[in-house]
Amino acid sequence: MANSKPIAQIPSQAVCSGGGGVCMMRNTWRDEQSPAFINFISTFLRENCFRLNFVSITPDFIFNCGGSSVAFIFVTNWGSNISPLFSRIEKLKVQFANLYVVVTLASREQNDSFICSYFKSGMEFGKPTFVPVRDIEMGFEKIVKIAHSRGVCKGQDATTKLKSERKRAVQGMDVFLKVVTALPGIDNHDANALNQAIGSIEAIAKASKEYILENTDLSADKAEVISRFFRDPKFYLGPKIN
């Protein structure tokens, strides 16, 4: 379309020590935009700690932020020949779980045309999400905010899972200590030594006296107690006095 336009002289990567994420821009989309707008995008990304790469991709943008990957179609000039756009959207929404379509509608006529085209195309609400904006700068700011918020949500979800796993691990260790220290003469130090050297209660039950002595600092008497407890029914069913 506009391949004859001069391309803004900006580096292929805009580096920021903050490391907010990575933005990949489609080469052909870039070539259709004005150099001033590409410079605006580069500056905006750099100031918000995103690296910018120009690559051959099917969406107009892919953002990787906080472990989340988000794809965008960015329509900067709403026109009359829009049927190929909706065909492209249908293909991309199958390929990308997180897809947004940002559409610049600068006039009332463009807004009416978009609404008519949207319903005529048979789009399903929210699949994908359409984001109408008044101007291209606002549109790109919206794109970065969406990508950033998706990354933050992904990070918070990962933190929640990590806390939950840590809580389960602590609870599991509490149960382990209660079970192992219930053996005659075995204290918390012995239980921790067994956990670190041998592992689970099942593994301890299978360990021989010799293996316990070789891999822990437990005494021979304690190793004998553990070995007999899990192997000798007369021993573990009999009354014990600590």
From TrEMBL:
Looking up SUPFAM superfamilies in the UniProt record yields: RuvA domain 2-like
**GO BP of this protein:** resolution of meiotic recombination intermediates
Q: Which domain of life is it from?
A: Eukaryota
**Protein name per the record:** Protein PARTING DANCERS
**Gene encoding this polypeptide?**
LOC107423446
Q: Which Pfam families match?
A: HHH_5
The scientific name of the source species is Ziziphus jujuba
- InterPro entries attached to this UniProt entry: PTD (IPR039172), RuvA_2-like (IPR010994)
